[in-house]
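Quick start: what a row looks like.
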Amino acid sequence: MITTARGRRVLGVAAAIGIAAVALAGCARGGDSGSTDGETAASPGITDDSLLFGISTPLTGATAGPGNCTADGALAYFGMRNAEGGIEFGDGKTRTIEIKTYDDEYNPEKAAANFQQMVADDVFAAGIGLGTPTNRAWREAAIEEGMPQVLIMTGDKIFSTREESPWQLGLVPTYPQEGAAFGEALVASGEEYTVAALYQNDDYGKGYWEGFQEAVAGSDNITIVKELSYEPGPAGNTPNYLEPQITELAATNADVLFHAVSVVPRAIEDLTKADAIGWNPVIFLPSNTASPGGVLTPAGVDADTYPGVYAAGFAQAAAAPPFAETESGMEYFDAIAEYAEGPDQDGKSFPHCLWSWIGAQILEEAFTNMTEPTRESFYEALTSIDSLDLEFAFGPINTTTDGLPAIQTVVLQKFNGAGYANVEVVE
């Protein structure tokens, strides 16, 4: 059953939940209520019959395309599992899980306000939402509240560092991991390349650039000829905001454009601009702005526009034609069609839908190992997953490594005109 209230989407999902305890939140304000008859007191947001999970993500604005996907993948997965009769969890109880989404418009202030609303709504745990600045906006508040903020779609290392973030866990590979994958492949090619870079002056852009620089340091075939950064924020939502930077970088005639920009419309404009002024370098794009349908096609990019468009990958691509021909792929698209709520959601224009689906599968694994109805027990179960094989992820899921997210396997991929194919070196 799906309902909508005050701009937030709610999905009732049957799930059974059990919990295994950690000693984390003795000082958290969101601690357990009283108990009777020797039973463990339940944390806010969970009863014998239900659990409430929140997702704060951009549902409107410039980042709404991938933002809606971060919610829709989880809505689709749990909707499908509900239709199958629910999930058997660690304590043997079957509960209804409500997924409630909150629109942050990719605005940190709105994200922080959303967290306060989640507290008021008695959300048990939250996560899966998109964005580095938006998730950082309520990280400390979540720690103080003792609310798990997990499987979020940001490659910021801070969310997977347990000492700094004792209630957090990232889902996707870190930004330095992605940047390094491209740098290593560029070095391994053995060819000489000059590199020009454009990146956001925040943890997102600097993380990608840091990983790349470390990977190429000391190599004799890679030369960085120019790097430009820009301040993200409201001004970055202005159309054609980065055209002057692309023009300046094009003047170097560099062989490679390293493009670490998170806003989809700016990525489309920059790719269009470079081609229009006759600069056709090898392109590197972050995983969240490399979508064939959501970025490359709108930018007029085909297999011949640039010598190569590369991105770091960690999961199958729903946009690739063979995906829809598999049994699991058909199951995924059927669930998206049935339960997704994003405007014109097809489940493949942005990869975040599939990443969200994977995140929901990881949540299910944690739910099946919970033995008590507490946030502490949930978080321990979630961070104790080792070698979980999921069909859509390139490598096993491991949440036990401090400093790394749940998905750790990263490969380099090259755009072939329809989708991406894995490669070992830049060709």
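That is the whole record. The two ends are 49 Å apart (CA to CA). The longest strand covers residues 95-103.
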